[in-house]
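Researcher: Next sequence.
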Amino acid sequence: MGATYYAMDKILNYIYTGTTLSQPPSFYVGLATATMTEASTSATEPTVGSYARVSFAGNSTNWNTSSSGVLTNKLDIVFVESTAAWGTIVTVFIADALTGGNIWYYENIVTGLVGGIEVLDNMLITIPAGALYVGMGTIL
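Model: Next structure:
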């Protein structure tokens, strides 16, 4: 997952200008039906079928220690079972609120999977432990 400008600005300002950086009480992993970019400030999420972001706190229980600029999820991230079709999921993201909030990281998965993942009624989406890679992105 790459960082959004929001996350980059927060981290850079903390490191280089001494601006306070408070860790959100929890992070939330979400799914989107539209691709995102570094400039994204919101996500196009499913609005039906019991969809909800998954709370995943920033702590050593949920996340492995960063190595070579990347960290991964230590536990499975399990979304609630869909009760209606969510559409085609093309992006996974991390935000700091259950709804709305700020987008910190995102990954467009449509490039790795032809057409994304079609979520139909009664499907359970799980991101297995170690499968969600979070990094700082490429230095220009």
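Model: Residues 5-17 form the longest helix (13 residues). Helices lie at 5-17.
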